[in-house]
Amino acid sequence: MNKLLQPNMYVKSVFDIDLLKLKDKGIDSIIVDIDNTLVSWNTKYATENVINWFKKVKNMGFKICIVSNATKTRVVKFNEEVKVLAIHRAIKPRKKAFLEAINKMDTQTFKTAMIGDQIFTDILGGNRVGLFTILVTPLSKKELILTKFIRKIEKIVLRDILEEGNR
User: Fold this and answer.
1) What pTM was estimated for this model as a whole?
2) Chain centroid to CA 113
3) Which of 60, 80, 104, 130 is the most exposed place for a label (fewest CB within 10 A)?
4) CB count in 10 Å sphere of residue 87
5) What b/e sequence results for 67-78 when a residue is b if at least 16 CB atoms lie within 10 Å of its CB, and e otherwise?
6) Residue 58, domain CATH
7) Considering its fold, how many domains does the chain have in total?
8) What is the largest CA-CA distance in the chain?
């Protein structure tokens, strides 16, 4: 299996991430996707649970930055409640937005985790720059047609990753 597609961690949701374990690994910064990672892709605002998760992350001393392929309007609207650094139209998996986020947070790649729901954007992009990558289960099955097609390929890749991990 191509190591660039393999996450360092796979969890059901952001709420299942052991933040203390990340601290123990030397992680001080988190890059996070929005759509189907924090909220379903058609949810405009952060939910109360997500707002509380951001508060917890900040209170634990993590720096945090949203990196999303979504439009500026989408990212700004979502960020109204959580008030963190944010990058829109990231064109993940290209490296530029990940490196920009690391620069904005004033950290280093080996101290940064990337949390997202897509192997071919979030995980591939994060791995390309040397981040600790965390794959979460997508929150919604309702997605754009292209994303639905990519999910079929991701299922095959994920199955191979999980089988490889059980060897």
Assistant:
1) 0.87
2) 8
3) 80
4) 21
5) bbbbeeebbeeb
6) 3.40.50.1000
7) 1
8) 45
